[in-house]
Amino acid sequence: MYMLLYALFNVVLILFIVFFFLRTQKDMPKNWKEFVIEFKMQAGGTQALIEDTFLRYKNKVDLIQRPNKIAVMTGGNRGIGVYTLEKLLKCSMTVMLGVRNPEASRKSIEKALGTELTKDKVFYEKCDTGDMKSVREFAKKVQEKFSAIHLLINNAGVMFTPYNLTADGFESQMAINHMGHFLLTHLLMPQLIAGSNDNDGKNVRIVNVSSCVHKKCDINYDDFDCQKFYYPADAYNKSKLAQVLFTKHLQVLLSQSGLKIQTNSLHPGVVDTELFANSSTDYIPWFRTLLFKTPEEGSRTVIYASISPKIEGKGGVYLSNCTIMPPNSLANDPQECKKLFDHCCKLLNIENFGSLN
Ligand SMILES: NC(=O)c1ccc[n+]([C@@H]2O[C@H](COP(=O)([O-])OP(=O)(O)OC[C@H]3O[C@@H](n4cnc5c(N)ncnc54)[C@H](OP(=O)(O)O)[C@@H]3O)[C@@H](O)[C@H]2O)c1
Fold this sequence. Notes:
The protein has helices at 2-23, 32-55, 80-90, 102-113, 115-118, 132-145, 172-196, 232-256, 285-291, 295-307, 334-347; strands at 70-74, 94-99, 122-126, 151-154, 204-209, 261-267, 318-320, 323-325. With 357 residues, it is of the alpha/beta class. It is globular, with a radius of gyration of 19 Å. The model has no long low-confidence stretch (mean pLDDT 93).
């Protein structure tokens, strides 16, 4: 039944791709390689939509009280992040947000969540995760304010953006979605370790918000910055795979160090947010309203990864629909995970990640 539905969806999908590409401003895949990437990604998205439909009933998470505990999250001013923030506040946590525009973020969050919930509980600091200088400055602000943190959610992201090299020389989707979060995690490790000594015996958690499309690619170390070949969906998928490989190897280091810190990656679901502004679905918003998860539903797996006792001690796993799911097979190869990790350390001039190795 599942396979039949999947096959049917794929046929409809090919027709959809052709139709939407003809109707939208989005560039058509220009060659076979781009078409294969586009098809694989759309098929992965369709499969994820079906999974979301069948597994929607699993998207439940208890909002356990965590008073006096500190969370740091990137993004959070819109999309899935707002509802993640709301749930963290309902768990009585204090949250420091790393956002591109702190004042505008404060206004939009107070409008969305009200001041009663947010007053003295949410702090806003500037952080552009695509700019390593900004990430360093943000980490400093966090360190000045909190000596210990108990949860880090690497949430900020962009999708399918046009080719751009950042000031640090990274392809922008890889920079914003992965490299900035890699650096931030490294810089905040002393505070995470301090938090692990003060967390009621529970593991401190590092949550990397990846995507199901991470399964549709591999990492090309010969062209990490996509200077030779760039297709927006391919670069997005790669950045999301990097997050999963990073999570896996970081967990190895954390376990070897005997620290009470765990890290997990996840797919929040296919969620109706502005992330799709550069996608073909922007042409048919009703499609998203009808079939995609709401941002509130999308926040549930993020919160599950952040606080659920059901995965306590299960670091390194990949989650979707509040369930442990298999990641890209590359993530099951410790050498591949280490390779990505070492590559990023080299690019960022990190000699000893979080003083763990
Ligand atoms: N929506 C989905 O279906 C889906 C599926 C799989 C994975 N995800 C992942 O879920 C996460 C949240 O996505 P979303 O759907 O909530 O998207 P969204 O509504 O577009 O929100 C993206 C968030 O990231 C922030 N952001 C973007 N670029 C940034 C930068 N350079 N520095 C700091 N913050 C930046 C945005 O802040 P600004 O307002 O400043 O732009 C915003 O808060 C992303 O990592 C995404 O890849 C989403």
